Amino acid sequence: MQLPSSLLENAVAQFAKLPGIGKKTALRLVLHLLKQEVNDVQHFGETIARMRRDIKFCQRCHNISDGDICSICANSMRNQKLICVVENIRDVIAIESTQQFNGAYHVLGGIISPLDGIGPDQLSIESLVSRIEKEETEELVFALNPNIQGDTTIYYIQKKLAHLPCRVTTIARGIAFGGELEYADEMTLARSIANRLPVQQYVK
Ligand SMILES: [Zn+2]
Prior knowledge:
Function: May play a role in DNA repair. It seems to be involved in an RecBC-independent recombinational process of DNA repair. It may act with RecF and RecO.
Structural class: alpha/beta
Protein name: Recombination protein RecR
Order of helices and strands: HHHEEEHEHEHEHEH
Radius of gyration: 21 Å
Strand order of the largest sheet: 4-3-5-6-7
Family: Belongs to the RecR family.
Organism: Sediminibacterium goheungense
Bound molecules: zinc ion
Pfam families: RecR_C (PF21175), RecR_HhH (PF21176), RecR_ZnF (PF02132), Toprim_4 (PF13662)
CATH architecture of the largest domain: 3-Layer(aba) Sandwich
Distance between the termini: 54 Å
């Protein structure tokens, strides 16, 4: 793609780094910005930079947060003795939009996947176990993608919790095996949360 300005070219190259954005779409976005007021574009750029610089992660659940503790953990109206374990922040957002879950979360930051070189140590599993011990959690519900890596992760964590009285469940298989949690429709996801199963039943 031949562009008449290196400034334009640099901006297009930056947008094209984003997932799902090809060179043509990047050019369309950049040309759109070019039509906006200088102040608006400056605000746009600063918002992105500030988000990246200032965003924090909750010290308790590893969700995205504006402070040390996220708004979900700080909410006393929610059942803090019920923890939903998810792979990433997008899953928290997906479950929150069902409005069917009133507990807290724990974001693992990934999933056990030996083929990709991801082991338990790279995930926030230790902090989950010590959190359950300390907070005397009553129930842990796994909401992981229904695939081999998800099952492996559930199995591993469940074994680590065997000595604790915490009830361990998983969301029901409303979502097809091999599917992706974040792409499920809200109804399927809501039903899955409502019909969670004891994990022993699930792993078998
Ligand atoms: Zn939190």
